[in-house]
Amino acid sequence: MSAPELQRLRVAYAHRESVKFISHLDVLRTWHRAIRRAELPLAYSAGYSPHPRLLFASPLAVGVTGDWELVDMFLTNRMDEDEVAERLSAQFPFGMDIRAVREVPLHSPSLPALVRFADYVVLLEEKMARDELIAAVQRVLAAESLPRERRRDKDVRRYDLRPLIAAIPDVLWREDIIRLNMRLRCDSSAAGRPEEVTAALGFQQHPQTIRRVGLVLAEPEGDAK
């Protein structure tokens, strides 16, 4: 019989350049190993195949960095938040940094179910005239629909990109680089991808970097950074 859950901690961490190409499965293994070495009393689910009670808000795509990623941990004993942060920080590899730890109500809604949007900063080295870029952003935001296709092996899924774009609030244009800030839908039913937005804007190349700077949650205090 599994021990009862007595505490739920929400951990914010950074996922840097040096680890951006590892899969979510490897990220999960890294977390399990760090928690075990930190000797934290992590809870396990009940049943024939117990698994660690660790919930990620929204797994990062491979190749994307994150400034403020969120994970909920369920513990079988209460612990001080600062001590948990210190123990975890000592066990994580270079490129995964603990940013904050805070307690949340034990029986509040599931963390993945709270996610509504993701904020990104995208850098592109591909050249586009400033006026052309501004016109492209206006065209995309004014569109009623943006039909797109996602291909995986032999499967093709057609979808509308436009409802997945909440905002493109900031554009920085320079001759050598373009920076786009964008807020994209990110919930249990659908998620926008920054590289698909840049393709809709007319860019041919994949972005140089994609950085998720925060997640917007459906709760008053939020966790967007």
Describe this protein's structure.
- With 225 residues, the protein is of the alpha+beta class.
- It is built from five helices and ten strands; from the N terminus they run βαββαβαβαββββαβ.
- The chain folds into two domains: 100 residues, Alpha-Beta Plaits; 104 residues, 2-Layer Sandwich (Alpha-Beta Plaits).
- The chain is elongated and about 60 Å long.
- The two termini are 39 Å apart.
- The C terminus is likely disordered.
Helical content band: 10-25%
Q: Quick one: biggest sheet?
A: 8 strands, mixed
Number of domains: 2
Radius of gyration: 20 Å
In N-to-C order, the SSE pattern is EHEEHEHEHEEEEHE
Q: Say what the CATH topology of the largest domain is.
A: Alpha-Beta Plaits
Secondary-structure content class: alpha+beta
Report the principal-axis shape.
elongated
Terminal residue distance:
39 Å
Low-pLDDT residue intervals, each spanning 5 or more residues: 220-225
CATH architecture field of the largest domain: 2-Layer Sandwich
Report the total helices. Answer: 5
User: Beta fraction of the residues?
Assistant: 35-45%
Give me the count of strands: 10
Mean of residue pLDDT values: 92
